[in-house]
């Protein structure tokens, strides 16, 4: 919705960006700005800057940036109107709502209320005869009633419309049930319950709202698991199962598991730091949530092929992050003369919490795990495979930045392969030198291409006319710094801009000036994509000499106008009538002034 400019200005003034960001990121003052580790991407060296003077943030690594509303939109995964309401509630400021935004807010609140009532209904079914099968299943899995209550576990009934009927009796409409993903429509248009005869897992976000559900069958039927699809209150990429409980843990790390039952079993055994990634590989959005509560992750997936693949994917995602990553590999157990895999649930039930604590304490760091995975692919008793192993493992070790760590890992690899330490160190040195050379050449290519460095990172807003775009950026920066300069832009139209998103911002600046208002980043937050806002913030970070603002403004306008004329096929230095006359004479074969 379009909130009044005056309200947005007051909202921004009451929510100092340093105060807001400090509640999510540890900041340290350096000069006039504050710096910390970026919450929007994984990094080890802080490149995240917060400017109290300009009331904006910017990450020099991932190029995310904006004002205080943008920050809340990204960190809390909220749309612009909801981020505004979030900040308004923070400072007890009344929000002026229009009918459209009020309706959207009402729909979201109704879906959240519906989810809460549905979760309560599912839980109550455990005490009813119709839910006895789910109760028996929980007892068989040794999940106590207290644990079931903590996680809000429940039972969906063996009925086509039990939930539908129960929620309609509470006043919820069919449209709301569809919007929440609790019912589906068949080909004949009839609605029926999505979850039937299943153990139900409410998905609760960090704010304590029930945003979705998962359901597990009690027998061998398929699909084994069924989950809520994306809704107006739920995105599986931005949620973690068990995070509402794990965020209160006193343990120094989080255990990342494969499934809901694993999380529940671990919590019941005293490991209240366990979460699961909603049936998908870990996402960048989920790492942002995790980074608020811990800097150490323990990956605890099944030790089958799928679990190993998920572990490797997560290691790759986290390798350049500020997380310390360890891998917990559960030992296989002997059954009828064969060693079989076991998951967390099996291990806890058979070995107990103390045994898991011991394995957890001895879990490997990610490098040990990756080296073991490489070694497992080779027969190190074979000479040719030993050479191939040395080549692959040396490249892996070369990816480590610390020279001491490279030497330690090279020694381990040499011992594993049965070759001399000196030979392995030489291979690692060669691989490291080759890697550094590739990085230097890539950096040189970037430095030679100055235009590429000045391009927006996102391809959807890339510049097609670099000369004009640089002038457009400069002009936007001047107008955002001093709105009164817009009075000197009467001859320049938004259509003259080569970059559409800059032209759109310019038009908004003119409209704001006509109303004698100064357009802020807070006001633009609802009109720009995250990519546009990030690039705009980068522009605002550039130094500007306001003492020469009038002259710079004239130069920018001249360049933009000239470029616009050229794109339209004209040349501002040539009279269009004379140019047309000369072209006609050239076509007819005339020449010289005698033919004028």
For the secondary structure, the number of strands is: 18
Structural class: alpha+beta
What number is the mean pLDDT?
A: 85
Q: How large is the share of residues in beta strands?
A: 5-15%
- Give the proportion of residues in helices: 40-55%
Which consecutive residue ranges, at least 5 long each, have pLDDT under 50? 447-453, 572-596
Q: What best-fitting shape do the alpha-carbon axes yield?
A: flat
Q: How would a crystallographer describe the biggest sheet?
A: 5 strands, antiparallel
Number of helical runs? Answer: 26
What features would you describe in this structure?
- With 596 residues, this protein is an alpha+beta fold.
- Helices cover 50% and strands 11% of the residues.
- It contains 26 helices and 18 strands.
- The protein has a five-stranded antiparallel beta sheet. The chain has a five-stranded mixed beta sheet with strand order 13-12-14-15-18, sandwiched between helices.
- Helix 11 links the parallel strand 12 (254-257) and strand 13.
- Helix 14 crosses helix 15 (353-361), helix 18 crosses helix 19 (421-448) and helix 21 packs antiparallel against helix 25 (549-567).
- The radius of gyration is 31 Å and the shape is flat.
- The termini are far apart.
- The model is unreliable at 447-453 and 572-596 (pLDDT under 50).
